[in-house]
Amino acid sequence: MNLSEIIDGLNNEQSQSVTLNDAQSALILAGAGSGKTRVLTHRIAYLVTQKNLHIDAILAVTFTNKAANEMRERLNVLLRRPIRSMWVGTFHGLAHRLLRTHPAEANLRPQFQILDQQDQYRIIKRLMKENQMDESKFPVRKVQWFINQQKDEGIRPNDIEVGYNFFIKKSLEIFKLYEAHCNANDLIDFAELLVRSYELLKNNPVLLTHYQTRFAHILVDEFQDTNTMQYKWIKLLFDGNNKVFCVGDDDQSIYGWRGAKIENITKLETDFAPIQTIRLEQNYRSTGNILNASNALIANNSNRMGKSLWTDAGDGELIDLYEARTETDEADFVISTIQKHLDNGASANECAILYRSNAQSRGFEERLIKYNIPYIIYGGLRFFERAEIKDALCYLRLMETTADNVAFERVVNFPTRGIGAATVEKIRGFARENQTNLFQAATNIASTLPTRAANALVAFTQLIEQMQDDTKHLDLSEKVAHLIKASGLITHYSNDKTDKAGSKTANLEELIAAARQYNHEEDNDMSETLGFISLASLDSSGNTNAPPTQNVQLMTIHSAKGLEFPYVFLTGMEEDLFPSRQSKDEPHLMDEERRLCYVGMTRAMKKLSLSFAIKRFLHGQSIYAHPSRFLSEIPSKYLNQIKQKYGATSKNYQKDDSFNQDIAPQANGELSIGRTVKHAKFGFGTVLNFEGNGDSARVQIKFKTAGTKWLISTYANLEFV
């Protein structure tokens, strides 16, 4: 492969990034839709073919398994050969590979197991129950979040200072118990993968030097989304002799709530100096009007690294801006517009409805059903998170090692075989007292139990041992097929009356297919079965499912990152909803909300529609809202303000470059819902409702300080504001 083939079709900035001197580190500020994945893959191809770098000398880090797989596929095509040995994957996947390669140095057994979020939750919940920790005061999810937050910062229990915070004190107690439990049972949760692999390298200088020398080039995608531990992990592998090539966009940093640190991308220029910054600003996704409006919006954030997206594809259509009376009115407008797109030849999967909160989806779903338009909620349960799949995998885990306590607890009485909670508690007690695993404890105590429980327990342990024996010479897919039948899972789910569509049995069949397609060559440092189990556990840590075809896509704006659609509807553009109420008093949170809006807008390829409602029923109450401040930050020349039968009011918008944020009708001496009024005693308020006629007519007003009151209209003496 020659140089002209590598840079063919790249623009000047992309080509400059790809062919950067191999003795140079770089930060590629890649705007939305600017072709960053292409730059990453072509950079690797350049290093391998033009600089004669061995593929094993490159470490490529992505944020999703989907991105890692896409990179592998593109490189296979570019290099015209498979790249199975290359270290390319997510932070968690690569950390897992390190630990599997050096388990002893990480104080782990080779057969250590990965805990997913559900397994972690169950362990924490049981530890809290055993230690009489009141869940009503200390919710399990909150304690789980506390533990993971500490690990994302690289903080161990002994490093935490409690002070006077009682929640931290009690959570720390569980953290210590949880860590002891995981260490005793060789369990690694997702956050622990990063911490343990970091400590593995930091505490073993010879090993660290080996990998610093091996990885001459470290490439990192979506660098703006790195958390503290991920940043430290990359910085540890960097020794000044190897080079980093980081691709990211500070304007798309939207995961601060889960630990991402936007300041990481700004620290690159000092921590990895000398480093060259290249901006990719040409957009290949959206029209000029969408990009210009997005640029104007994001310019309101301070402390940006600075860039402005542009396209040579033309201005395209203006952005529709729709004011709705209610969320029902908004849904009618959105779905009727989608129907017009479908009537004009668009496919359903080309349309996406985005919202800030999942609670907003209901109204859109109702109308999509009414008009018989197929849709899907994007970001639901992933395949490997589904209950029936986890059940099957736990049997597979026990067949691989009977010391897997988490797997034992999940399937010891599933399908039901007469082993109750009291029996399981006795097994736990024996295991604790004798420092053994649950499977061995079950074998030892069976003879001490009542006949029925004893027979059931013996039958279970013999079932696992028999399946181990029956499958020891089978390949992976045959092993999975055997356990699904022998365990009774296929019979159980076939008789499940709640699964009328048979999706659960179909998913079990799909698991067999997944095992058949598993490529063990990429994980050949562990057994085929253990590699498949690890793949399943790591895949369940991802964010979303791949979207099915031929369905309108409904999703939160967070879920939409990395996706693109010809027709995008960005809904619920109201103060306290988007931006969220929690962000109003925190400038850094408001900046992130604006970045989130920017991400939502730049998902659109051909047509973007923005909408807001004057009145919205949300979380059990009617809320009167003002248009989002983000609308006022978009110059009106890029907007098509729709006034049709759906319109909430007849009021005119300002025609200059600012958007009128007052949603009340023009002052005309008449009361109307949403009208701001002033009362001599109660002060300012908003009209919510009316009832009655003539002298008996009443008006309901929500006052800012006095609460909601019903007043007789004739005697209220209201002033119109």
Describe the structure.
The chain has 721 residues and is of the alpha/beta class. The protein has five domains: 3-103 and 194-282, P-loop containing nucleotide triphosphate hydrolases (Rossmann fold, 3-Layer(aba) Sandwich), CATH 3.40.50; 113-185, Arc Repressor Mutant, subunit A, CATH 1.10.10.160; 298-381 and 547-642, P-loop containing nucleotide triphosphate hydrolases (Rossmann fold, 3-Layer(aba) Sandwich), CATH 3.40.50.300; 383-539, PCRA, domain 4 (Orthogonal Bundle), CATH 1.10.486; 676-720. Strands 9, 10, 11, 12, 13, 14, 15 and 16 form an eight-stranded mixed sheet that branches. Helix 26 links the parallel strand 13 and strand 14.
Describe the structure concisely for a colleague.
The chain has 28 helices and 21 strands. With 721 residues, it is an alpha/beta fold.
